[in-house]
Each structure stands twice: as C-alpha cells, then as structure tokens.
Amino acid sequence: MTLEPDQNTGGPRLRLSVVRDTTIVATLIVLGLYAGSAFLIPLTMALLINVLIIALSDRVISMARVPVWLANIAAVTVVLAGLFVIMYILGSQATQFARSISTYETQFDGAVNRVTGLVGNDVTTFIRDNLVSIDMSYVARVLLSSATSLLNQFFLISLYVAFLMAERLAFRKKIQLAAGNPETGAEFTTILDAITDSLQRYVGVKTFISLVTAGISYSVFKALGLEYAETWAVLTFALNFIPSIGSIIAVIFPAMIALVQYETIGPFLIIVFGCGTIQFLIGNFVDPALLGRSLNMSTFLVILALTFWTTVWGLIGAFLSVPLTVCILIIFSHIPALRPVAILMSLDGRLGDDNAPARTQ
C-alpha cells in the first residue's frame, strides 16, 4: 500500500486516496462474490474437484506407471462416481425422511420427557418452547429441495471438470503466452504451482481423514441400528471439511435422531461420547500431524474466513472457506505490496517461499 512522507513528523503517512480506492475495490469484490454465487460456487467446486482428480491421477502414475490419459480417466471415474453416490444417498434418503416426518413429530414429546431426567425441568421447558413450534414438514421440504439442487449442480460441475481436464496441458502454455514475457510467465506459473500443491495436500488429506471418520461413525450407526445411517455418514464426511464447528455438528445430528428413535438414552450417549471422542482425537492429533505446515494459517484467520465465506456463500461457503483462503494467502505472498498481509495471515509469520531466493521488485 502506498505511503508518502508526513511533512510534520517525517514518517510515512497513508494516503487517503489509497484507503478510499482499496475500500471501494474490496466492497465491489464482496458484492460480486455475493451476486455471482450461482455461477461462482459450481465453478469453484469444479476447480477443487479438478485439483483432487489431478492429485489422484499423479498418485496412480507414480504407483502403477500407466499412461497419463489412462490415469486421468481412472481418477475422473473414481472421484465423480464417489460424488454421485454421495448425492444419490442424500437425495434418496431425504425423500424417505420427508415421508416419515410425522413419525418423528409424534416421538418428539417422548424424547423431551427422557431429557428431563438428565438436564432438569428448566432446560426441558426451553426445548418445548423453542423446538415444538418448528414446522418439521417445512424442514423436510427444504432438505428435499436442497438435495435435488445438489444433484442438479452435480451435472454442471461434472461438465466443468471435464473441460478443465481436457485443457489441463494447454493451460500452462496459454499462461506463458498471455504473460507477454518469460519472467512474468514464470511468476504466474510459480503462483499456480504453489496453489495447486497446497490444495492437493489439503483436499487429499482432508478427504482421507473424512473418509476414515465417516467409516468409523457409520460402523457405530449401523451397530446401533440408527435410521438413515448412510445419510449421517455422508454428512459426517462432508461436515469434516468445515473447520472447528463441522465435527461438532456431525455428532449433534445423529445424536438427536438417536434420542428420538430409541426409548432409552444409551444410544444417544454412545454417539455423543463415542463419535465425539473419535472426532476429537482425529481433529486434534491426526489432522494436524498429516497436514503439518502445508496450511500455515492463523487459527483466528480460519474462524474469520469461516464466518466471511459462510455469510457470502452460505453453507457451501463454509465448506470452501479454508481452500479459498489458502489461495488468497499464496497469491498475497507472491505480491510484494501484499506480502506483509500474507505474513499476518500466516500462523508463525513464515511463508512457503521464505527459503527461496529473494525477488526484486
């Protein structure tokens, strides 16, 4: 950001015009993100899925020594098939939930009475006053509509992914041509490689961790005979991509269903303490150990990014908050004027290219 000498003190003084222009640009960007969410969200998800496919394709090539085109086809098939299964489970079981919603409404009073023995009459009264008034049929319609919308967007995302994979090799050549000179082209390529590397590690590790967590949780749900166990397992997988609060929500939902479904509180306690312990151990020990310093972001920044992207793009923004913020941090770290901002965004003040040779402005 431009500074000019202060005539009175001799120190640098921030120009008002720079603050004004920066504020205007930032406001326009936020408004553009909000207004263009219907177009930008599927495109952003397609880019992240493309990164996951490339990472899986590279792993197949390194392990099986197969041609690039065959590895790409295998990676695309595995990733898109997995996503389709997720969408199908959510869509089909949301319909079943909508049909059986009246059963849950009649069982709710019994669940509230069981809670009385655990938390007392005051909390029970609060639950009755605030939850009984919820129109569960409306909730079911919203869930069904959301599942249908996700299934529709899946085909659009798949189309984006197909064209991104088709232009994967040509894209780097176009960057060199668009840059105008070799130095600028090399800088763009460096930024792109840094973003791709960080996103591949994040998406790959989080996908593996979420699959393990969802698999263990699904085993617990099936052992208990919990209704819609597949849906809760899929939600556990997806919610683990939301930092901090996602794992908590992934335990609350199936626990509440267990409280309504069963006449005893045993299954409820098993899910709360069993799945909750698994989420705690994986989130606080396994996740940091596997990710390491690949996502060197401030903890406060993670919460701030979660709040911002959720406000702008809703629930999908919560899923995408960390990858999007990683991209912003990397881009800022390669722009000399914005590098101090990237340092403030990092966890320990060190950036990924600190060991690289210093660049001249």
Describe, in plain words, how this protein is organized in 3D.
Keywords: Membrane, Transmembrane, Transmembrane helix. It is a multi-pass membrane protein. This is Transport of quorum-sensing signal protein. Belongs to the autoinducer-2 exporter (AI-2E) (TC 2.A.86) family. InterPro entries: AI-2E-like. By secondary structure, this protein is an all-alpha fold. It has a domain at 36-166. The protein has 13 helices and two strands, in the order E-E-H-H-H-H-H-H-H-H-H-H-H-H-H. The chain has helices spanning 16-35, 37-64, 68-99, 101-119, 121-131, 136-166, 168-179, 182-224, 229-239, 246-261, 266-291, 299-333, 339-345, and strands spanning 3-5, 12-14. A two-stranded antiparallel sheet has the order 1-2. Helix 3 packs antiparallel against helix 6 (136-166). The protein is globular and about 70 Å long. Residues 1-7 and 355-361 have low confidence and may be disordered.
Précis, in short:
It is a multi-pass membrane protein. The protein is mostly helical and 361 residues long. The chain contains 13 helices and two strands.
